[in-house]
């Protein structure tokens, strides 16, 4: 008998769609499965004010398939020069659901990011006042700090201070990758949460480096040691309410990934929900998938759960090895690999 699993329609609480012609492929890949998504603002130029967020939202909505209900939850990109009034305006708009802190140089299109997280306290104060969550890429970027230690240093140097100084501010530790990050989230109450990607659940740095570098596993924050992977897995598999689904799906052209200086990011959207189902099934915890994917995120953001559902089928499914969008070739994360679950439709 074929096994099926029906869950409340999930949301993706950390998503990169890019812009322009790519939206014709990236938007449907998510909208056909997820009801909402937190949309990352690191475009070129970045989304730094309400007018830019509104325009980007319109471009996204133009690519939502007919008959599909999907809500992009927009995010502002914090900069050294942003004024608190921008946050007030965004909060009043009803379309902005977060503000993203990218330390300058931390990841793709982050050059306009914050040079020193300790120098934008007026922005944290405005976020706290207006109820807009602070979404963090939690790494320092000092050249003398080992890339595998940058999340820990960010926690020690910045995050503890921000959490202490702004106790009513909602904070999301995006794509958490370390035991220290997991422990911080657990220790800091219901206003602190973390998103978890499929790659950080399923892989560790051995999968990136042993036997040769695998560029399609390269992401930032980079995959860490097994002990950190196991801490993330334990938090998710325990059903901890402060950890929920955020793919960090980030499309990069295949030739940009497979290059002398390959891009950081995993394009997981084409198979995101089946990948999570495969992980939970592998660990005998399918009963935990619905809350992780469909309930904990809305509860944190103060949004209702969806009224409709999606259904997965347990059968071997090979993730497409390649995908073409606007004439550009992409390799979906785990493309060519066979997993245990697929979407019913």
Descriptive tags:
12 helices, 8-stranded parallel β-sheet, 34% helix, 345 residues
What can be said about this structure in brief?
This protein has 345 residues and is of the alpha/beta class.
Uncertain ranges: none
Let me know the average pLDDT. 96
How can the largest sheet be summarized? 8 strands, parallel
Strand order of the largest sheet: 2-3-4-5-6-7-8-9
Structural class: alpha/beta
- Rounded to an integer, what's the Rg over CA atoms? 19 Å
Helix percentage:
25-40%
The share of residues in extended strands comes to 15-25%
The count of strands amounts to 13
- Global morphology: globular
What quaternary form is this? single chain
- Summarize the helix and strand pattern as letters: EEHEHEHEHEHEHEHHHEHHHEEEE
Distance between the termini: 18 Å
DSSP helical segment count: 12
What would you note in describing this structure?
The longest helix is centred in the middle third of the chain and has 16 residues. This protein has an eight-stranded parallel sheet with strand order 2-3-4-5-6-7-8-9, with helices on both faces. Strands 1-10-13 form a three-stranded antiparallel sheet. It has twelve helices and 13 strands. The model has no long low-confidence stretch (mean pLDDT 96). It has 345 residues and is of the alpha/beta class. It is globular and about 55 Å long.
List the helices and strands and how they pair.
Elements lengths: L2 E6 L3 E4 L7 H9 L4 E4 L10 H12 L9 E7 L6 H10 L2 E6 L19 H10 L3 E3 L13 H16 L5 E3 L5 H9 L4 E5 L1 H5 L2 H5 L16 H12 L5 E3 L8 H4 L14 H11 L6 H13 L7 E10 L4 E3 L2 E3 L7 E6 L2
Parallel strand pairs: 2-3, 3-4, 4-5, 5-6, 6-7, 7-8, 8-9
Antiparallel strand pairs: 1-10, 10-13, 11-12
